Amino acid sequence: MGYQKNDDYIEVPERIAEFRTKYPEGSLQPWDKAKPYEVVDLGGVVHIIVVAAAYRSPDDPLPGVGMAQEVFPGKTPYTKGSELMNAETSAWGRAIVAALAADTKRGIASAEEVRNRQAERDVPDSKPASKPAAKPKPEYAEAADLRAKIIAAAQAAQFTPAQVTGLVGEAGGKGGLNTETDLAVLRAVLALIPPF
Fold first, then answer.
1. pLDDT tens digit sequence for 9-52
2. Is the CB of residue 101 less than 8 Å from the CB of residue 23?
3. What are the phi and psi torsion angles at 10 (to 5°)?
C-alpha cells in the first residue's frame, strides 16, 4: 500500500508560509549552529538527528525548538538518500509549532512525517529472518525525554547551546547534548539548569 495523502496533517511548506506571514523577520536555524545535525547510534540503529529553532525575530530569546530523527540509511523512496533533508524539514515543522506560529488542530506531525512512516511500514524488512531487528533499549527513550526536558529548561533559562554543551562536559559527558546517552549525565545537566 503506497502513501495516501491525509488532509488531517499539514505539510511543512504550509507551516513555513504561515510562519513567514506571522513573523516576517523570523528565521529557521539549527538550535546549535556549531552542530546543525548529528549522526548517532541508537541501540544498533544509525539515526540522523536535527534540532531546529524557529526564531520569531532576530533577537527572539525563546525560539520554538523542534527535534526530528531519521533512520540512516532510509528505507523508502521518500527517505533513502534524503535522510538529512527529511530530518531537517521535520525539525523545522516542529520548531514552528513550538513557537506557536502554526495551527496544531490537525496534529503536530507533518504530512511528510506521516508519509515517511507509512512508507516504512510498507517496505519489507531487508534483514534475514534468522536475525531479529535490534530493539532500542528503554534507556534510549528515557535519554531522548531527558534531552527534550533539558532543551526546554535551557530555553526558559535563556541558555545558549554552547552553555548547554558546557554543562554536559561539567556533568561528565563526552560530547554534545544530542549524542549523550548516559542517563546520570543527562539528569545532572537538567539539575544544573535553574530553577533549582
1. 677 788 888 889 999 999 999 999 888 998 888 888 888 999 99
2. yes
3. -100, 140
